Amino acid sequence: MAQAAIELIGINKSFGAVRANRDINLEIVRGTIHGIVGENGAGKSTLMSILYGFYQADSGEIRVGGQPASIKSPNDAIALGIGMVHQHFMLVDNFTVLENVILGAESDALLKKSITKARSELERLEREYGLEVDPDAIIEELPVGLQQRVEILKALYRGAEILILDEPTGVLTPAEADHLFRILRQLKEQGKTIVLITHKLREIMAITDTVSVMRQGTMVATRETRKTTVEELAELMVGRRVLLRVEKGEAEAGGVKLAVKNLTVKDSRGVTMVDDISFDVRAGEIVGIAGVAGNGQSEMLEAISGIRLAVSGSVMLDGKPIDLTGAADPGELRDRGLAHVPEDRHHVGLVLAFEENENSILGYHDDPRYLRGPFLNIDAIRDDARDKITKYDIRPADCRLKTANFSGGNQQKIVLAREMEQDPGVLIVGQPTRGVDVGAIEFIHKRLIAMRDQGKAVLVVSVELDEIRSLSDRILVMFAGRIVGERGPEATEGELGLLMAGVEHREAAE
Amino acid sequence: MSTPYAKLPAWADYGLIPVINLFVAFVVAGFVVLLVGENPFRAAAVLVEGAFGRGQGIAFTLFYATTFIFSGLSVAVAAHCGLFNIGGEGQGYIAGLGIGIVCLAFDSVLPWWLTFPLAIIAAAAMGALWALIPAYLQAKRGSHIVITTIMFNFIAASVMVYALVGFLKPANSMAPQTRTFLDGAQLPKLNWVIELFGAKIRSAPFNISFLLALAMAFLVWVLIWRTRLGYEMRTYGHSSKAARYAGISETRIIIVAMMISGALAGMMALNPTMGDQHNVALEFVSGAGFVGIAVALMGRLHPVGIVLAAMLFGMLYQGGAELAFEMPAISRDMIVIIQGLVILFAGALEHMFRPYVQALFASLSPRSVGMEAIKGKGA
Ligand SMILES: Nc1ncnc2c1ncn2[C@@H]1O[C@H](COP(=O)(O)OP(=O)(O)OP(=O)(O)O)[C@@H](O)[C@H]1O
Ligand SMILES: [Mg+2]
Hints:
heterodimer; A: 510 residues; alpha/beta; Rossmann fold; 2 domains; 6-stranded mixed beta sheet; 18 helices; B: 379 residues; mainly alpha; 16 helices; disordered C terminus; binds adenosine-5'-triphosphate; binds magnesium ion
């Protein structure tokens, strides 16, 4: 019998009326990679936060290496050799890698001494695990994939034997994710234990040894990964069969609803991110923009929705041109029937400190339905929010709950419900299912297709190639700020992958 | 992960934490009293007795509190929009100019109940105007509002000196202040309300502007939580990116919020001028604008909390004056130290004890083993 690194026995945790964890039993075997999957709000992050000392369980026992452990704070967890890589990185942006790694673990009163010591230790860790990062690079200048590596280094530097990663690949490009998995395998070979939370079942199949499934606060199953399938896991998570690929009929594309013309956008440093692109989206079709993250998709979305001022360019909405430079106003675009689900729901699409119902009118707070003269019509707003909660199955079904207390997938549903229920003519969506569970992905995809079938124009930007391929009627590939190709939905992954890497583009240029 | 510790119930958040902060402030203040060789318990007794013991003390406490309610609300309105208005002092001071002009012009022809509304408008308009310029500079030029509002405090002080030694002063007078207002610009006292409860009051400046302050507290609550404008202000205050996304104009919301904040700061000038001194004199605001920052922080930016915090600071002002009088070793400056400690612990170090209270609550949180009744509910 292999030795257990961690045993959780009878863990319970409630937040008010919400029972986030009920009677959880879980054993994690030393030297393995253990996946945890489950719907949004199933209680995965809560369970890991209990293990890492952020929350205290209401009842239950934690054993680390067979010994009962009392974990009252992250410091206790670190002392027991437990490290955690958070979904939202906890790094000081303007510090160097080295400074971040030793932060809070300085061994001497004099920084100089700790730094020299840390540097050689860091170099050893980097060599041992293939975690190359320049120790003197400034965090904010590193891509997310490398920032995450720094988080891992931080944990290892503090002597972590058990590493918890909560949705580590949500923000990574496919190549960065592959690299992360190589690192994790290497860590496993060195005898470390890894707990991996993810919504991407393919990743579970590719890298874990064991996988546990949570549903509505309980642990419903634990399986050996090689003896299970994606379909079985999806069904265990949701409690019913899930369509992993949405079915849809032929598009019946009508007239052009959204025409983007000669759009050029620069970022805050003056680098051209979107380089003179033009395209159309017609009524009754979904156009997908594929591309590796950072090739200008985000800036393009922000410019089309009026959030970021363009250097040049305009959109035609229903035949009327709207300038996107100068005084572009998201409110005006919204009034003309353009709804936008932004990529960054935490900072742009939602105000996390607001109650759910307050967020369900964000951007539509001028609508007379929600107002009585200059006053908010609180009853109407809450009734409306409750309707959306029912229709979109947002959990917990409490429109007075603070938005920050909803799980990631449910936050995404709040934004989608708001934008879709306004019945816009054009819907543009950035990363529709980032951090969202399989059941909700199915739901969101069905909704997007229903919008299309009602004759709306839908523009989807996603770094998930699978998603683009299963949703889109036409696929545009973006590379280095330009649209480098257009393909039908039948295009193969390999073909799109080459375009996304800029290969064909370069050949054509020669 | 939003908060790493347990979320506090509202009563602990709004009740327990301020009480703990206050308690610590008083303990530290007690040591200071001990240091100068007085008995801290007796000092505390004198202070509370002075503020609440007799009708006279209560009236003075409420008089001071009136000004602090206005200045606290002013800071809170700006803060809900993510702006730190440090200019309440100057906005209140310059409002004295408007009040002075209105009162001097009308006190001989109109009754107080007609002069008062005109003076309210003048005070609010002057305060709003004084906030407009920093707001415009912030919105259009990105000049930091903290810096510009501080600078405008100095400009207000100079303008007021100019006005008070110039055209506001009676020609034959040596004192840099307006003439005494006639009955038509003197606000009725509210001392009789306290006397209804059997207390005796010799003379105290507690006046009708207290009711205006309470009305404004209610209106601020309505504004922030029940109007579209308040919604826009809060959205911008939490996330300027979300506000941009929602189509809220940054320029407009900054200017509007600052002007409302300035108007409230301006109104605080009504109480000491028309309610008490019956003139406009140099330095009549005497720091009340800055006290408003502490009041707003301590009141957690909520009008109810602000009214309560304003009462507390009113008590410190009144009780402190009494204390300096009763205990010779405790000078006027000592009172300022005590007030400073309260501001330090209740305002600036507001969050010092929060993590401990949260950790305590986390370990005491309702055991869900005992929560079988709601099984099946939840996520
Ligand atoms: N601080 C909190 N206060 C109130 N409720 C909370 C809090 N944290 C989590 N919850 C609730 O507990 C439940 C479990 O949340 P948790 O974050 O653990 O889900 P999750 O499985 O990690 O979901 P996701 O996949 O979306 O990240 C949810 O219903 C959530 O709304
Ligand atoms: Mg989670």
